[in-house]
Amino acid sequence: MRAALVLCLLGSCSLPEEQPLSEYKFTESHMGTKVGVTLYAPSPEKADEAAHAAFAEIAAIDARMSDYKPESELSRLSASAGSGPQKVSLELLEVLTASQHYSELSGGAFDVTVGHLVRLWRRARKERRMPSPEELRTAIVMTGSKNLRLDPAARTAELAKSGMILDLGAIAKGYACDRALAVLARHGLTSAFVDTGGGMALGDPPPGRPGWRIRVADTEQILVLSRCGVSTSGDWDQFVILDGKRYSHIVDPSTGLGLTRRELVTVLAPDGMSADALSTTISVLGPERGLRLAEDLPGVEAWMRWEEAGRPCTATTPGFTRKK
Ligand code: AMP
Ligand code: MG
Predict the structure, then answer these.
(1) Contact assessment for residue 173 and residue 196, using Cβ atoms and an 8 Å cutoff
(2) Range with lowest mean pLDDT among 41-50, 110-119, 288-297, 305-314
(3) pLDDT tens digits for 64-108?
């Protein structure tokens, strides 16, 4: 035993040869967007198998958490509003619990009960018509995270007001990225990243490199990152111009209006779900309160660009530039 140990320490043990890893990229459509998986694997077969499992995980999360699918667990929970506590899956409970956390942190700026408002603004984009004050009032009344009650011990969720609608569009993609990354890790592939356009989760760096090269929003700035989440929120493609004002698909639950500051926010956070929730939260809070919130949170950095009197302004948390 001792002799064997000494030999090993001298480096003469015959360990199994490590296979060199190559980069593989995959793309599929899920959650209404293109999802990219980039990973390092020892063989194409291993890469295919793991990517297939990661996409299956994302599809399962979408089937559970989409507000577009009437049969999703989320839609069924919305349909039960006003009928008392409902049993929910651990996954949905996890995302709803995180949502309530960000709602509390932001004084209600982040709110997954915004379903009515979001639908109102989806219609406004389609019909290019400002929602009426009456429609806005009704939708605001149906919004409010205090009327979403969670009981982790009983594993239930309750929408206390009949007619409330949940919308996880600001957080579910980040969660899906985290879960997909975890699936890849279970297949032994930890050098990977999963990207849903706005939000991504990064695993270990590519072999022999310090991290993944990630571009900040639409800038030329490149960050080298690993083991974290990155998310960008903004109205670059989902907006409507009414009376010369540009309204974003992100709404301020306190006014019921789509945001008009033309913001672009990129957040770095310990995981994809936090980054996703926070990029939306910071958008609603605006530059001053939003960046202050990011600064107070451990492991979180943010970059933001917005318009003031027609002029573009940029600001970041102090630690953001140190990430370069
Ligand atoms: P993201 O692209 O992650 O910023 O998410 C934007 C999506 O989140 C919107 O399309 C809505 O579905 C939803 N949403 C809009 N406003 C809010 C809000 N104040 N809190 C939570 N979700 C929101
Ligand atoms: Mg988000």
Answers:
(1) yes
(2) 305-314
(3) 999 999 999 999 999 999 999 999 999 999 999 999 999 999 999
CA distance to 186, 210, 267, 298, 323, per residue, from 320 (Å): 31, 17, 9, 13, 6
- The number of the ligand 1 atom at minimal distance from the alpha carbon of 284 is 19
Is 111 touching ligand 1 by the criterion CB < 6 Å? yes
| Ligand 1 binding pocket mutation candidate from 110, 114, 168 (most atoms within 8 A of CB) | 114
Ligand 1 contact, 116 CB (< 6 A): no
Which residue from 195, 263, 267, 235 is spatially nearest to 33, judged by alpha carbons?
A: 195
67 Cβ closer than 6 Å to some ligand 1 atom: no
Distance CA 280, CA 106 (A): 11
Measured in angstroms, how far is the CA atom of residue 220 from the centroid of ligand 1? 26
Whether residue 263 has its Cβ less than 6 Å from ligand 1 = no
Rounded Cα distance, 231 and 248, in Å: 17
Token pair 């297939």 is found at 52
Ligand 1 contact, 112 CB (< 6 A): yes
87 Cα: distance to centroid of ligand 2 (angstroms): 26
| pLDDT 10s digits, 128-180 | 999 999 999 999 999 999 999 999 999 999 999 999 999 999 999 999 999 99
Cα dihedral 212, 97, 116, 70 sign? positive
